[in-house]
Amino acid sequence: MQLSLARALDIDQVLLTHQHFDHIGGIPQLEFYSRIKTSKPVRVYAGSQTLDAVAKQFPFMQDTLELHELTAWQTLEFDEVRYTGLPATHGTQTFGFLIEKAAEDDTPNKRIAYFPDTGPLSAETAEALKGIDILIIDSSFHGNNWKPQGHLSIDEAIEQAKQLGAKKTFLTHLTMHYDEPITAYELQQLLTPYQGAVLAANDGLEISL
Questions:
Q1: pLDDT tens digits, residue range 116-165?
Q2: Which residues contact 165 (CB under 8 A, 6 or more apart)?
Q3: How many domains does the structure of the chain reveal?
Q4: Residues 55 and 84 sit within 8 Å (Cβ to Cβ)
Q5: DSSP string for residues in 35-59
Q6: Is 16 domain-assigned?
Q7: Which of 8, 35, 99, 158 has its CA 20 to 30 A from that of 28?
Q8: Same domain, yes or no, for 86 and 58?
């Protein structure tokens, strides 16, 4: 259903950030795509622990997934777009992805960072993301951050974006872990002073590279 709503009708490969179920639980949607539309396995790239979790939780998909191990700082390239797995601070072998399109003529590369689950970024990862064009980042908490080593609050995510010099930031992984309840409207009002530089992500959001 989610793939249909997103109009994701052609899937060549899937990159996973980590093994937690809210990030791999949708994988069974790929079974019918593999069996009915393409009649071949879907390529999946992730850290070894995540691949183990996928294999154990979805053993019925062994013939519909082609699993490939991804290591930190490794870059994959598909259709002239590069994806580099950068370490996130959210348990072991959790990645965010630096996504870059090859430059055309004198046009600078556009760079997108996708970190849906992370605490404060390491110095090495932050250095790689300096001046990022679009930052998509964990904002799991509002008010008190119950898990500061593995997640960010809305305020912390915005501060991280400022430190990176991100040109535009989307807050994601917005959850119910809020000491201070906030509605979608109130969040939009909170972000108004940033004049479009910081926005709340939404289902079905599409970003052009």
A1: 999 999 999 999 999 999 999 999 999 889 899 999 999 999 999 999 99
A2: 130, 131, 132
A3: 2
A4: no
A5: IIIISSPEEEEE-HHHHHHHHHH-G
A6: yes
A7: 99
A8: no
pTM: 0.92
Cβ-based neighbours of 78, under 8 Å, separated by 6 or more: 12, 13
The distance in angstroms from the start CA to the end CA of the chain is 25
Answer with the residue of higher pLDDT: 37 or 139: 139
3-class secondary-structure state, position 135: strand
- Based on the domain organization, do 56 and 127 belong to the same domain? no
Last residue of some domain: 70, 98, 125? Answer: 70
Residue 88 corresponds to which tokens in the numbers above?
Answer: 């996130």
Strands laid side by side in the 65-69 sheet: 13-15, 42-46, 65-69
CA distance 171 to 202: 9
What six digits make up the tokens of 150? 């593995």
Domain ends where: 43, 70, 97?
70
124 burial type by CB count under 10 A (0-12 exposed, 13-18 middle, 19+ buried): exposed
DSSP 117: S
Residue 78 tokens read as 């598909």
Q: Which two tokens stand for residue 146?
A: 């119950």
* Closest residue by Cα to residue 67 from 52, 87, 88: 52
36 and 94: one domain?
A: no
